[in-house]
Amino acid sequence: MSPVKNQASPAQRAVETKIVSHALGKAEIPLHPQRIVVLDSSFILDPLLALSINPVGVASCSYCISSDTLSEFITNVPNVGHWEQPSLEKILSLKPDLILGHVWQKESHPRLSEIAPTVMIDTDSEFDFKQIFKYLAEILDKRDRVEKILADYDGHVQRFRQKFGEKLKTKTVSIINLYGSEISIYGIDLNPYSQVMSDAGVQFIPAYRDMKGYLGISIETLPDWDADILFMVILLESDTKNLESLSFLQQPIWPALKAVQNQQVYALSWANAVVGPITANQFIDQLYGYFSMDTSSTNSD
Questions:
Q1: Quick check: helix, strand or coil at residue 239?
Q2: Are the C-beta atoms of 177 and 183 separated by less than 8 Å?
Q3: Host H or E run for residue 184
Q4: Has residue 148 got a pLDDT over 90?
């Protein structure tokens, strides 16, 4: 396929710009971009919407569990294809003046940069949704909105802490991630929802203290990750459909877990770790339900 050319008009070339640093180097972007395409909706879409910026195009994940968390904000936003291989033609047709993606999409960076300035964000080594939010606000000239938005988030956190202060001292939490036949644990440094829970005063089991990054585990080691409240994060649509047939649910080790015996297991679809100020506040609201119940059967959220 021949390179996609960015046919900028003289008026477009005269737009005031600035140089910003990103995961793959530097990019010259408009001082006030008006037509932004988002290629990784997990980390970028929510912060943009929180800043009252509506993208003109968004890439999606076809095999992931769909989420209604942000749907009301992007009802009429065109889809530019799967985020693993977005359509350059669709992106070009939208005439973007800025493209925002994740560093894992770096193979597309040269071609995308021919369409519009492209900024890639890296969250592989450590994830902090507040830092990503501040970074986007900085490069998009929306710094004046950051303090109020994060203060609102802090307010949610403090109200939750006040409500469940004593229970937060005695209840522990653990999170296992299901991806097909694989079971894994993410350190708090890589799991945005874990970070929100930490901000809210939720206590994780001791196994998390020295853990960084990602850890694949076997069914036999599930007891090492038992807790008072156990979250099962379902990433794929196929896993949701086959949840009851997952192999470890049929083995003696499963009903022996404390969380299972106390009926404190929750199967959640966290929409591929979509998080930012909007979803972080919504998740804190959801935590009220989990901590208000003394017992509950396995639920789907």
A1: helix
A2: yes
A3: strand 182-186
A4: yes
Q: Which DSSP state fits 236?
A: B
| In contact, 217 and 185? CB cutoff 8 Å | yes
Looking at 3.40.50.620, 3.40.190.10, 3.40.640.10, 3.40.50.1980, the CATH number of the domain 165-300 comes to 3.40.50.1980
Cα of 241 vs its chain's centroid, Å:
22
What is the spatial distance between Cα 232 and Cα 270, in angstroms, rounded to a whole number? 10
Query: DSSP secondary-structure letter at 3?
Result: P
Average pLDDT for the chain: 84
CATH fourth-level superfamily of 10-122:
Nitrogenase molybdenum iron protein domain (3.40.50.1980)
198-212 tens-digit pLDDT = 999 999 999 998 888
Contact between residue 198 and residue 232 where contact means Cβ atoms under 8 Å apart: no
pTM of the shown model:
0.83
Cα distance between residue 276 and residue 253, in whole Å: 36
- Work out the number of other CB atoms within 10 angstroms of the CB of residue 254: 16
d(CA 81, CA 96): 15
- What would the 3-class secondary structure string for 221-234 be? HHHHHCCCEEEEEE
Counted residue by residue, the chain has a size of 301
Residues of the chain with CATH 3.40.50.1980: 10-122, 165-300
Structure tokens at 115: 């369409």
Residue 274 in tokens: 């979509």
Q: Are 39 and 100 in contact (CB under 8 A)?
A: yes
pLDDT at 62: 67
Counting other chains too, the contacts that 61-65 makes at CB distance below 8 Å and 24 or more residues apart are 61/272, 63/236, 63/237, 63/238, 64/235, 64/236, 64/237, 64/271, 64/272, 65/234, 65/235, 65/236, 65/237, 65/240, 65/269, 65/271, 65/272
CA 245 and chain centroid, separation:
27
